[in-house]
Every structure is written in structure tokens, then in C-alpha cells.
Amino acid sequence: MSTKTLSPKIFACSQSTELAEKIAKEYGIPLGNVKTTHFSDGEFQPAFEESVRGRRVFIVGSTFPTADNLMEMLLMLDAAKRASARHITAVMPYFGWARQDRKDKPRVAIGAKLVANLLQAAGATRIMTMDLHADQIQGFFEKPVDHLFASTIFLPYIHGLELDNLTIASPDMGGSKRAYAYSKFLQSDVVICYKQRKKANVIEHMELIGDVKDKNVILVDDMIDTGGTLTRAAGLMMERGAKSVRAICTHPILSGDAYEKIQNSQLTELIVSDTIPLKKQVSKIKVVSCAALFADVMHKVQSNTSISDQFLM
Questions:
Q1: Range of the structural domain that residue 301 is part of
Q2: Rounded to whole angstroms, how far apart are CA atoms 249 and 220?
Q3: What is the pTM (predicted TM-score) of this model?
Q4: Percent helix, strand and coil across the chain, each rounded to 5?
Q5: Are residue 189 and residue 145 in the same domain, yes or no?
Q6: Residue 125 near residue 89, CB atoms below 8 Å
Q7: Annotated active-site positions, please?
Q8: Average pLDDT, stretch 230-243?
């Protein structure tokens, strides 16, 4: 019997086809064929159009709402398991439902834990993701988790700006660890925004901890949803004398009127990755692809070599 290791295959969930194509090109193999049948009531059934028996399979799909995106990932994991794939990696550049990582009030679900259970039950033997909303979500899994950091792709972009008097900022207290990690590599100062919310996505009050006068500020966050926090923070910093304010956000959820807020804000630019496809193009939003990063880590997973050189933070 041959002991030759079969080459891996990369497949895409429909919401992440463009990113998966880039990843497959960077990896050096064609994207696998998937055919999805749609029923009139909204049900759908993805099917692999080629054999995956005995192979390592990478299924690329960010699980941002709607819930159909998560369901498609689960169905494809289950299909790969039942087709006798040897290893099945759920490649989730954006891990959705991650803001529900704890019980922050009575009688609520821990959605991130539920999603972890579902992925494992469906057949995932490994999880690959980037910039989780909370690091501890890795502990919800009993399978290996490759948690990549977008700093790998964003830091070269920041260096290329060649900004003087650079200051890194966090839009809230929860992101201070991320801001300090960036500032360590960039040898810059750090400022923190303190905010109080009336309810989800609605800020009641914001205050700035630190000095931004005559500084070029870069706000760093893991995701941008409505854009309210970042645009308000940018306005506050410009009021306090900042020379310019930029923002770096890994996952561009950008719901509601977020695109208009960004375009009309005092942000010089918003730099995002392509974990979530943009709904439209606006001049202030720049996209830096994470495809090469994921392809490199997939190569190393396939060859069982260390990926620690990708952990800049």
C-alpha cells in the first residue's frame, strides 16, 4: 500500500469565494469544485464535485450574518466528513458570533461556545481563524486552533506610511492589549478611548486617555460594525489636536450606514482586510489581503512545520 501523502484541496463557501480563490492561487493549487443546490423554501445543499477521500481539506468561509453562512460551513464540514476526508480544517477568516463569548447578563446564550460545538460536531478537526474578538474563544474548542494575527499584514502597511509622531490608539478599554502590542513593534505611544454605551451599537459618552496633540494617530480594532465608535473617536482626537487619524480594523462588517459614516468622518483612511467582502467601494476604505498569510499557514499545516513565525503578536 502506498504511503504517499495526497495533496490537499481547498474549497470555498459561497460568501468567501473571492478570498478562497486568492488563497488557492497563493497556495499554488486550483480551488476545488462545489455545487450548491437551492430549494424554493430557502434550503440549500452544497456538494463536492470531486473526491476528497484520504485528503486534507481546507474549507474557507467567514461566518458573518446571515446565519446561512454558518450553516453552509457546517454542511460542507459534514459533507467532507462523510466523504472520508482525512483532515478537515474550517478556515474562518472571520469567526462570527464571537461577541457572545460570555454571559454578560442573565439568561443569554454563549453564542461563540455554541458555534464551536457545532463546528466540531459537523466534522472540523482543526480551526484556522484570524483576530478573534476574544482570545479565550480558543478554549471553547477541543480541536487545534490556529489563531492568526492581522498585524502580520497591517504592520508593513503602517511602516510604508512613514508617519512621524506616530501614536497607536484603542477605541475602547477592551482593545488596549492589541494597541499595546502594535505600539511595541512600532515603538510608539498609546492612547485609549473610554466609552460608555446606552445599549449595543449606541455610545452615550466617550473620553480620551492620553495626549494626541500634533500626533498621527492610528486606531486599531478587530472589527468595525456600525462605524460609530471609530468615527466618534476620530472626531474627538482631531478636536484634541491630532494631525491625522487613521483606523485599522481586521473585519469590515460595516452594517447600516457605516460606509457613509466612514466617508464623511474625519478619518484619513480606514484600512481593512478581506476577511469579509465589502458591500461597496468608498474612497476612504483601503483593503489589504490576508490571502498570502492563510496560504502560508496552510502550507505549514500540511507539512507539519511550525507556524510560530507568523505570530507577531
A1: 9-149+291-310
A2: 6
A3: 0.93
A4: 35, 25, 40
A5: no
A6: yes
A7: 195
A8: 94
